UniProtKB/TrEMBL annotation:
Keyword set includes Nucleotide-binding: yes
Keyword flag Flavoprotein: no
Keywords of the record: ATP-binding, Nucleotide-binding, Transport
Name of the protein this chain belongs to: ABC transporter ATP-binding protein
PANTHER family reported in the protein's UniProt record: ALIPHATIC SULFONATES IMPORT ATP-BINDING PROTEIN SSUB, TAURINE IMPORT ATP-BINDING PROTEIN-RELATED
Domain ABC transporter: 23-244
A molecular-function term among this protein's GO annotations: ATP binding
Amino acid sequence: MSTKATAAPAKDEKRSARHGTLLHMRGVDMRFGTGVHAVDNVDLAVRRGEFVSLVGPSGCGKSTLLRIAAGLETRTGGSMDVSTDAIGYVFQDPTLLPWRTVTGNVELCTQLQHLAKPVRREKAQAAIEMVGLQGFEDNYPSQLSGGMKMRASLARALTLDPELFLFDEPFGAIDEITRERLNGELLRIFRAQRFAGVFVTHSIAEAAFLSTRVVVMSARPGRIVGDFDVPFDADREPSLRADAAFARLTGEIGECLRAAA
Ligand SMILES: Nc1ncnc2c1ncn2[C@@H]1O[C@H](COP(=O)(O)OP(=O)(O)OP(=O)(O)O)[C@@H](O)[C@H]1O
C-alpha cells in the first residue's frame, strides 16, 4: 500500500523497500476539522527488524499517528510511504465478536480475504499456538480472561503475516503480571517473525523492554523530541527490568518525557 502525496511515489517507495524501510513518514501533520492540531511535522522511519515504541503525554497524538500509518486516518500534511500490504493492527480493546469462538475470531481476517477454509484453519491454529491459546479454541470471548482476549486479538492479526505490525496500547487494561508475561511473548513472536513494529504505550518500562528504539513525543501538537536506541540483546529475560542499565535508560526516557509534557 502506498499513501504517498509527493510527486515521485514509485521511486521513493522502491528506495524505501530496498533499505527494508516499511514505514517512512516525512513531515507528517494532522489537524482535525475541529481545529485540534494533533501531530506536528513528524519524521519517522521504521525498518524490518525494528520495534519502535511511541511514548508521550496523554492526548499528544500517538494513536493518531498510528492510525495514519495504518491508513485509517488521512494526514493533512507531509508524505508517507508504506512499502507493504501486510499490515497488522492491534487495538486497545480486543474487539472480538462475542458469538464466535476463539478459532472463529482468529479466522476472521483470513475469511474476509476469502482464503480457503483449510488454509485459514491452519493459519488460525498456528497463530493460536504462537500466542499460547491452544486448548481454548472452542471457547467464546465471555469465557476468556482479559489477557486471553488480548492473545486472541494478537493471534487474529498474526494470521495476516504482518510485515508492518501496529499496536495501539494493547496491554494497557491488563494487570501487571499478565502484562509482563504478554510482553515476553510478544518479544518472542517479534524475534521469530522480524516484522517492523510500532507500539504505543504509556509505560516506559514496557517500551524499553520490548523495543529496539523508543521515540518520545511532546505534548500536543505531538512532535518527536527524543529517539533512544535500546542497546539490549533481542533475547531478553524479565530480570532485565531489574538491571542497572535498564534503570538508567528508563530514567533518561522519563526525563525526556517530563521535559516534553
Ligand atoms: N477523529 C478526531 N476528531 C477530532 N479530534 C480528534 C480525533 N481523534 C483524536 N482527536 C484529538 O487529537 C488529539 C490526539 O489524540 P490521540 O488519541 O492521538 O492521542 P494519544 O496520544 O493517543 O492519547 P492517549 O495517550 O490518551 O491515548 C486529542 O486531543 C484528541 O482529542
